[in-house]
DNA sequence: CTTTCGTCCTGACTGC
DNA sequence: TGCAGTCAGGACGAAA
């Protein structure tokens, strides 16, 4: 379930568990994820101390004391579970390690769309996975101005453009639908038909939806990081996503929330509120 | 160049 | 209850 807010919550959980800790008993149980895990992963990570844990878009960056950076992406089904101690590995546990305080960290990913690799700190952001990413939506790098520049010359709908990680980094299908809803913008609207007023609304909506999701996910997703793997609380706060036929939370449409398919992905929206 | 489509893989859910 | 079919929140590379 990982889009930016879920990854951010995982990162916050990892900071608690990993900051300053030494990684031990590093085990790669499957190397054939979306891309092959580096063959020398274990020897390069085992025994190193964690210096920094950060997030870029949906990527998790863990800097080690020799300037190696572990880059993790959860794909569509990846999870990271922190538990108090090592236990019997489960199916789809692909990466497992411990810390010198005894905590165990497990990367589990049934679909194996996740990614794990190593980079050097100096060139980390030049890595192919990170190089082309657009601005971080929750920073001041993401403004109506920067958004408009990146939408220039785009022929696609605004829905498709927002899913493009080069336009803005970290949004997935859920939060694109939600942001367009709160901005009152039709997902079908062409990117070139977004003017300054709509861009301002859209940027504000993206930021507030993500911030709300992080805040709402914060408590329950923390459990998810710690152990249980349950869905986050934010699910209850979704206005349109996966709510086809249900009433729009802010207007009385007859038809309610509608679904359409754009670029092969489901879009949920309120045709009355979104123009 | 841009955009869409197929693809990687497994599991959850629906309908017969 | 079983089984087949459909769909899934990501992102790349091929093809148009």
Main sheet record: 4 strands, antiparallel
Helical residues, percent:
25-40%
Distance between the termini: 28 Å
Strand order of the largest sheet: 1-6-7-5
Radius of gyration from CA coordinates: 20 Å
Provide the structure class: alpha+beta
Q: How much beta, percentage-wise? A: 15-25%
The count of helical stretches stands at: 7
The average pLDDT score comes to: 90
Report low-confidence residues grouped into runs of 5 or more: 218-230
Shape: elongated
| Chain oligomer state | single chain
User: How do the SSEs run, as a string of H and E?
Assistant: HEHEEEEEEEHHHHHEE
Description:
This protein has 275 residues and is α+β, with helices and mostly antiparallel strands. Helix content is 29%, strand content 21%. The chain contains 7 helices and 10 strands. Helix 1 packs across helix 7 (196-226), helix 4 packs across helix 7 (196-226) and helix 6 packs across helix 7. It is elongated. It binds a DNA duplex (16 and 16 nucleotides) through residues 1-3, 6, 34, 58, 73-77, 92, 109-115, 129, 153-156, 160, 163, 165, 172-175, 241-242, 263-266.
């Amino acid at each position: 379930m990982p889009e930016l807010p879920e990854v951010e919550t995982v990162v916050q959980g990892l900071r608690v568990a990993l900051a300053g800790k030494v990684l031990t008993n590093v085990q790669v149980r499957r190397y054939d994820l979306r891309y092959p895990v580096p063959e020398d992963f274990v020897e390069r990570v085992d025994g190193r101390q964690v210096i920094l844990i950060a997030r870029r878009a949906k990527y998790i960056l863990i800097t080690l004391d020799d300037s190696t950076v572990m880059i993790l992406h959860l794909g569509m089904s990846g999870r990271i579970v922190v538990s108090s101690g090592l236990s019997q590995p489960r199916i789809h546990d692909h990466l497992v390690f411990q810390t010198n305080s005894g905590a165990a960290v497990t990367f589990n990913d049934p679909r194996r769309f996740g990614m794990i690799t190593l980079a050097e700190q100096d060139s980390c952001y030049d890595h192919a996975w990170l190089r082309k990413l657009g601005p971080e939506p929750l920073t001041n790098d993401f403004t109506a101005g920067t958004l408009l520049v990146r939408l220039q010359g785009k022929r696609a709908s605004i829905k498709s453009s927002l899913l493009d990680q080069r336009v803005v980094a970290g949004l997935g299908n859920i939060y694109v639908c939600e942001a367009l809803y709160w901005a009152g913008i039709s997902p079908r609207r062409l990117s070139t038909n977004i003017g300054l007023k709509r861009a301002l609304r859209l940027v504000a909506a993206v930021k507030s939806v993500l911030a709300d999701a992080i805040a709402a996910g914060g408590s329950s997703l923390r459990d998810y990081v710690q152990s249980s793997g349950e869905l986050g609380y934010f699910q209850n706060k979704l206005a349109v996503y996966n709510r086809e036929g249900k009433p729009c939370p802010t207007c009385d449409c007859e038809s309610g929330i509608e679904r359409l398919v754009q670029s092969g992905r489901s879009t949920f929206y309120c045709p009355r509120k979104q123009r």
